[in-house]
Amino acid sequence: MSAAMDTESTYSGYSHYSGHSKKAHRQGSRDRHKSPRSKDGSRSEKSVTIQTPPAEPLLGNDASRAEEGQDDNWGETTTAITGTSEHSISQEDIARISKDLEDSVGLDCKRYLGLTVAAVLGLLVFLTPIAFILLPQILWRDDLEPCGTVCEGLFISVAFKLLILLIGTWALFFRQPKADLPRVFVFRALLLVLIFLFVFSYWLFYGVRILDSKDTNYQGIVQYAVSLVDALLFIHYLAIVLLELRQLQPMFTVKVVRSTDGESRYYSLGHLSIQRAALVVLENYYRDFTVYNPALLTASKSRAAKHMAGLKVYNVDGNNASGQSRAMIAAAARRRDSSHNELYYEEADHERRVKKRRARLVVAVEEAFTHIKRLQAEEQQKAPGEMMDPREAAQAIFPSMARALQKYLRTTRQQQYHSMESILQHLSFCITNNMTPKAFLERYLNPGPTLQYDRDRWFSKQWTLVSEEAVTSGLQDGIVFVLKCLDFSLVVNVKKIPFIKLSEEFIDPKSHKFVLRLQSETSV
């Protein structure tokens, strides 16, 4: 048939095609036997080209067949839908990306500057008591009064206290940062300022009262250094209370809602700033929320577009556009009554297809694992050098389940999160640890949390915190802030946990006692 067609539908891989293909083939055969005069009269017809599916095995013996099978069946599943498939790039987006890069450079500089200041201040804190003790010994050693056993005991005390302070500081402060916050941590900055003022005041008093006068009471100088170490230990305790213990008691309940699909979770938080609460929300999001799948949102959009595409407005009298819009609104209102029936039958048909392909997948995987057990029994009878490793076993049984698994993933729109290589790795992992077919299928039958999938497919490198209040201010009742990434946003609503008044009611133990009296007329 020589007519030009507007769109050509091509089915490749293991895609399903129905009886319409046979009808198109018969129609094409009849058109080829028509006379040349029918060419002009068939301009409005459409032709459909249906390619035959490739060979059945996905994994061949040689590498070329393996790559060919992967391209035919799994290549499109990894690139068909991505996190940015619904977005276009414009000049404004390019400018915004360049601005984000500049901001990221500024954040790195700010982070390294803060680490440098903290490291210098920490080094000054640990060297100050040692300097207080050594400077008199270096500058006026001959004029010092003998101290004896008392000073030696104080030396041991200072050494152990500095060791305890060093371990506590390492455990509390020297930890790998989990995120770059937009503002400084207020309590940590206050502690650094407090430590600086405290050490500066000690050095000022030491320089005026000891260095200038060259005090000869060495025992008093050592005790002065011991008092500094004790005060530093108390500041460390204060840091533990402010940075760790204060936020442990739950004071607020936050509701986190994903803007695209409405999935929500509830979390309990303590006294935190808005930016640190946002960090806790993101940590829990990657663990608790199911992975964001934009393919699941295309069904409603395509349904709405289909309804609007079916409406046609004819401008007969040359009226303005407002009349056309009113006509379209009225037609949409009339079709709204029947749209729920279409939605019901579409969802019912989708659930039926999912259940059918799920059953096929479960049967295929069980048969494959049964084959593995049979192979393991056969391999035990062979020499140790001829044993099959889990990777080879996974490649041996994968073709028997690949088609059912691929159809199920396409039906449930999960194909972009599972490549052929990741499935083979998971299958070999299950074989290595002697896991059951149900354990293997758990990853594919139930959408898991975001951390379960490949990092390159879900991880958002930058989030934007939007809040009407200052991000360094603490949480309060009724505060709403938004965490935005490229594809969606998380809306966080903060509610304070109500004050609960619990009363006690005493029940007398004697009130539970009763007496059973039997009448004499009974037959018992």
If you had to describe this structure to a student in words, what would you say it looks like?
The protein is mostly helical and 524 residues long. Among the domains are: 150 residues, no CATH class; 80 residues; 116 residues, no CATH class. It contains 15 helices and five strands. A five-stranded antiparallel beta sheet has the order 2-1-5-4-3, with helices on one face. A hairpin with a 4-residue loop joins strand 4 and strand 5. Helix 5 packs parallel to helix 7 and helix 12 packs across helix 13. The chain is extended, with a radius of gyration of 37 Å. The relative contact order is 0.10. The N terminus is likely disordered. It holds the Pfam family Strabismus. It is a multi-pass membrane protein. InterPro entries: VANGL (IPR009539). It is found in: Cell membrane.
User: Sheet with the most strands?
Assistant: 5 strands, antiparallel
- Please state the structural category: mainly alpha
Average pLDDT across residues? 74
Poorly predicted runs are 1-89
Shape label: extended
Strands in their spatial order, largest beta sheet:
2-1-5-4-3
Count the E strands.
Answer: 5
The Rg value, from CA coordinates, equals 37 Å
Percent helix, as a range, is: 55-70%
Following the backbone from N to C, one meets helices and strands in this order, namely HHHHHHHHEEHHHHHHHEEE
Helix tally equals 15
Task: Measure the end-to-end span.
Answer: 102 Å
Oligomeric state as shown: single chain
What fraction of the residues are assigned to beta strands by DSSP?
5-15%
